[in-house]
Amino acid sequence: MKTILLAWIVLCISISEIQAQSVRSSACAYTLSGIIQYTNSGEPVEGALVFIQELNTYVLTDPDGTFRVDSLCAQNYNLHIDMLACSHKDTVVWMQENTFMRIGLTLVDKDGEITVESQHSQNQPEISSAEVLEKEELARLRGSSLGESLKYLPGVTALQTGPTIFKPVIQGMYGTRVLILNNGIRQEGQQWGNEHAPEVDPFIASKISVIKGVQSIRYGSDAIGGVVLLEPEALNTFRGTKALINLGGFSNNRAGVASGIVEHGFKKIPGLAVRLQGTVRKGGNTRTPDYWLKNTGFQEANFSAAAAYQGRRWGLETFYSQFNTTLGIFTGSHIGNVSDLITAINSGQPAVTSDFSYAIERPKQIVNHELWKNKVYYRLGQQTLVLEYARQFNKRQEYDSHKAYNPSLPDEPQLSFELTTHTVQAYVEHRISRRLRGTAGVMYINQANTYQGRYFIPNFASNAIGVYVTEAYKLSAKTKVEAGLRYDYKYLKSYYYENNVLQSPERKFQSPTANLGLLHEWSSHIETQVLLGTAFRAPNVNELYSDGVHHGAAAYEIGNPDLKPEKAVNAAFTLNYVFRKCFGYVHAYGYYFNNYIYLKPVFPPTLTIRGAFPTFEYTQVNATYGGLDISVNDSITEKIILSARYSMVSAYNRSQDEWLIYIPPTRLQLGMKYLLPAVGRIKKPYVSVDGILTAKKKNVPANADYMAPPAGYFLLQAEAGTYITLAKQEMLVTLTAQNILNTHYRDYLDRFRYYADAAGTNIILRLQIPLDFTKQ
């Protein structure tokens, strides 16, 4: 299998070299011409900037919206189109003959008309079900964590540990079944913990995509539930200096956030650009409708730097980011004895409350994460060769409720992890003909983890390699098929003491995976997708060998060294539709698992010298998943936009003939947005209201949890926003009110629902200030 895939890569490289020699032997005499029009009205766009990346030059459209570029070679060209008051547009053209293009730009006018466009990201499969947050929609979520920002998307929820820790849940799956790609690199921190939030700063990204379903071919064998892509805006190598400032204030925990980004394209060194970015966040105790949650504050300081050079055929990129956070863990989740634990679970109010404070005391977490990425690419005709290397370093320190009994000792963590990850990836993006394009590559990941303090998971070293190929073929103008094949191998060696004897077990895991997708456009209004895929996930080190108090989750967890790899088969169907100003989709999916691994509550609770904790054990069963996501948006008038989002998922334990635990409840969200008229410097004002109904989770195993699923609940939220033009810059101001009715509720996927209610009313003020000095 490996030999075949490696031979395929060599074949693609050979084809690309032959094509490149053919190009060099012929004159670069092709002409690219086209017209740019407003998608809203069809009128031509005068003065639009069309930047040709490979030539590092640009042209402006004429009064009739046309442009022309001569002397082009037989190769791919990346075009970047910009125009004031329009959304930025990127497209790729393959020159094999004189070519004419018709390009639409979306004008966001005073009526706020909604236009749906299909954009294909370099990191996204040709055929996939995806949700995208960008531009205004992403701006309205700035200041929240990644998991919290995504939880209102159809098919996406969040696994919570109190009010400050959120992990994304896609199609009912979380943890290592959901991959996060930060600037194209797999996020590799201590992701095995359910309360270990992703160590990424969402302000880095100008676009966040959630790709649902099995995506194991391109991203890794364990991408079973889906993938979250954080994509920074491409560095602007042909313009001057621009910046973006984001500010936010949150009433509930009196939190504040400030983030800034500045980038510069050097005119004297064409093709070279740099970017600097930084974020600070700080918040205090969260308030429920009736009481404050003691020790739930946080503070965060992040920064990143990037540089890129783009030549005619080759380019270089480097990126460095650092994420640093300190999180308080709700004091009421750490209980002294078993009887007090049972009392706390059965009580309607936590045993420990407090007033507001920014102080972060024990128990707490301090997390630092570094990412350094380097990328080089070279174009050979219609092929692009890419080589990437990344190093990640993650340090996690966990402080128990009480420090060492000797007061003379320093205030050190009771548990500390250090994980170093090296990732090397080489791939070729190839286009063999007008109809056939794809990617073939190899990825290698090396990890080493050490710990200090009390035992929870062992030291370990792992090596993993994956070889893959994926191809998309256009059967006709309206039909496309995509197929992929991957082979993964992982070696894991762990080190721990058992009865004072060093143990060093070795585990090896390997498996092929495959997928097949079919897309058909039935008309200009309806498109369908059918996806079939297999997946394979090796058990994590915590699932195999954990044994002790999982501090952040306030739980005692027990691993199982005999666990086998998960294997799954997935099928999904998606219907996308657009009827004038009404658009949306229906997405249905199902999984069939062998050896599904989950954390099962066991009784009674465990009493340790650190207190009494609910106990959970990693268990393996055969299981099935099934779910449905629906999204509808309808502009019923020029001023009123209605929306609806519906998600449901259930999972069944076929081994014990019962429902699986910790699966998201059904959710329905209805919204209305009203577009107000512009007045003077106030542009595109609006008001909106949303109602979110979360049902009680009923399909659960009987008497299998420390607390029955909480009641369903309804949350009301509203928002008002507008652009304000000052000094030729358009600032976006939004005011959001969450949980307006101050509803008492507990969420089923909140690990701390045993002890306390969720947050009450929260008023959020956000301000986004773009600064483009090139226009001045």
Key structural traits:
mainly beta, 55% strand, 6 helices, 22-stranded antiparallel β-barrel, 776 residues
What's the structural blueprint in terms of helices and strands?
Elements: H1 2-25, E1 30-38, E2 49-52, E3 57-60, E4 66-72, E5 76-82, E6 89-94, E7 99-105, E8 129-134, H2 135-139, H3 146-150, E9 156-161, E10 165-170, E11 178-182, E12 185-186, E13 207-212, H4 216-219, E14 226-231, E15 241-250, E16 255-265, E17 272-283, E18 286-287, E19 292-293, E20 298-310, E21 314-328, H5 338-346, E22 364-380, E23 383-399, E24 415-431, E25 436-453, E26 459-474, E27 479-498, E28 501-503, E29 506-521, E30 526-537, H6 541-545, E31 547-550, E32 555-558, E33 566-579, E34 582-608, E35 611-635, E36 640-653, E37 658-659, E38 667-675, E39 682-694, E40 713-726, E41 729-738, E42 762-772
Parallel strand pairs: 1-7, 11-14, 32-35
Antiparallel strand pairs: 1-4, 2-3, 2-5, 5-6, 8-13, 9-10, 11-12, 13-14, 15-16, 15-42, 16-17, 17-20, 18-19, 20-21, 21-22, 22-23, 23-24, 24-25, 25-26, 26-27, 27-28, 27-29, 29-30, 30-33, 31-32, 33-34, 34-35, 35-36, 36-37, 36-38, 38-39, 39-40, 40-41, 41-42
